[in-house]
Design goal:
Elements: E1 4-5, H1 11-14, H2 17-22, E2 29-32, H3 33-49, H4 55-66, E3 69-72, E4 76-80, E5 84-88
Parallel strand pairs: 1-2, 2-3
Antiparallel strand pairs: 4-5
Helix pairs in contact: 3-4
Length: about 90
């Protein structure tokens, strides 16, 4: 897997990001600007409640994931390497 496209920030769509990064994924994550804003907030709850990580550990993980988010404006075509183009609505 070289890239991800997140359609929205519901936990059933973003919840596996933590495990993908733990397994070594380091590709771009394309999503709307709103989703990019919500992803760290949603994942922080999971890190705190499910994994019982302290604030510093949560911060490091969220910082790592956040650096791979590629926010895209609505109605924008984006070239995705090796895939073609994606249109965000």
């Amino acid at each position: 897997m070289r890239a991800l496209v997140l359609t929205h920030a519901h936990i059933d769509h973003i919840g596996r990001l933590l495990w993908l990064f733990a397994a070594g994924f380091r590709g771009p994550i394309y999503c709307t600007q709103a989703t990019a804003h919500l992803v760290p907030l949603m994942l922080e709850d999971g890190l705190k409640l499910q994994l019982n990580l302290n604030s510093a550990a949560r911060g490091r993980i969220l910082e790592l994931i956040t650096q791979y988010l590629r926010p895209v404006r609505y109605h924008e075509w984006v070239p995705v390497k090796d895939i073609g183009h994606g249109y965000f609505t």
